[in-house]
């Protein structure tokens, strides 16, 4: 990276000064090694080891020393939440805020692929992108399916159980030098040369010409673009001499292949950070068998967790499935407990946990980080086995469905407003908000609404007035209440109809208060009048990934094959000391989720297991210092 930043960027005196400025704890040897590393490497980081803090510190030092005005740092993660956390950290310092502007890039892998590969590819074909969103694609695909051109496909779909998924899941894949149409997770049930196959391909390509895509499409389009335009690779790799990839364990095969294609053979320094034992997504594990397997041999390691103490660390160490890992707990002295229940007392598990959390965790910490109730499955399946899911413990619990249109639009306005106010790419923020808005106004006839760049600028025109309303949403939308939202959407509806000059159907402009989680538990019957001040919030283990809780309850659920129960298997492995890598694949997958949930809490970890299956382990758990409570005996 010669000439891109000052050579003393990571000098000891600069690091110590930055640590002091940010109010961080002193660094240990492993953290120093990673921080001062300037070569390609992997970092395997235990849960709570300060990975995100370390990334923020390294980026702050790099930003302070960066000298190039045309080449930048590229920071990639997998979710907007993780990206925003990194952005917030670098934005807290004046020097760090430079990373939010050109030539740097901080975003998700998806947004990186969009920005530098897929969107340029689509534009070279003269296509105007209207939306890259699975939900928007599904809506458009079902609407187009009603056209007479697709009568054979429609007839087939209507005869199948959940047949519409064939159409709504139609996805591009790059095979043998061209884009082919496949399903979201598997091939359609008919051959491409059949009438239904031809109509599905035609429908998918028609929507593509209209600029409507699924998220996964963009990876296939990017692959084709790179194959047809080899000059893109040196251009992108030269733009970014340093790439930092966070949450590496969640990188899918196709994502890693694209990143390798762009950066692997270039002088770019790529540092990958993550925890392979938290890789819970099915495709992510496929990377482990490739030349890009994470972590590579000789990877650096952060084994010390400052989130929790020795008790929880010992549990985590026994449940490390993908890679043996001895986690050292240097956080608060915590407590591990097990609640044994049967069918009659499952309803008491959550309330017992809440009372335990109130008694063990200091109230100020509990208020700041409310207790969480986590399970691997949300709703009951067809099996008669018990318990299956969160709903077995929380009567009235309704698994949250796909975000509704109004929820998506409100969230889009708030997210774009946050990006706008942070000083990041204002054009990108405005474009994202406009795409969400025009997806909420569906033309009853003809083509959709124009892209942002085609809106007129004169304030006397509908396009100009829409631009003014967009700016109002970007500037103040994050603080809008229901009345304010109603007023601006009423004005938008009027101007959008004038802009389209054709009938429009407004979809989901309603305002919904962001209080879903507070009401998610429902009215759970209590077995005691002593109701804690802080109620637990239920959800899936997957949804809590990356979070830190004061107290966490893991509910036993039926694993996906329907043959075993996850918490019981985890308890067996802890007590018996069996090697996780030698377990059945289905057990490994179930226990890996338990590992993710069990490494969230700082003060209290509670595992709930059916008495009939786990009572046999009680004595060993008590000997280990755990609090074992049998709810059937109270």
TrEMBL record:
Per UniProt, the keywords (alphabetical) are: ATP-binding, DNA-binding, Helicase, Hydrolase, Nucleotide-binding
* PROSITE patterns per record: UVRD_HELICASE_ATP_BIND
A Pfam entry, by short name: UvrD-helicase
**Binding-site residues, ATP:** 45-52
Domain UvrD-like helicase ATP-binding: from-to ranges: 24-324
| Name of the protein described by the UniProt record | UvrD-helicase domain-containing protein
Q: Which organism is it from?
A: Streptomyces thermocoprophilus
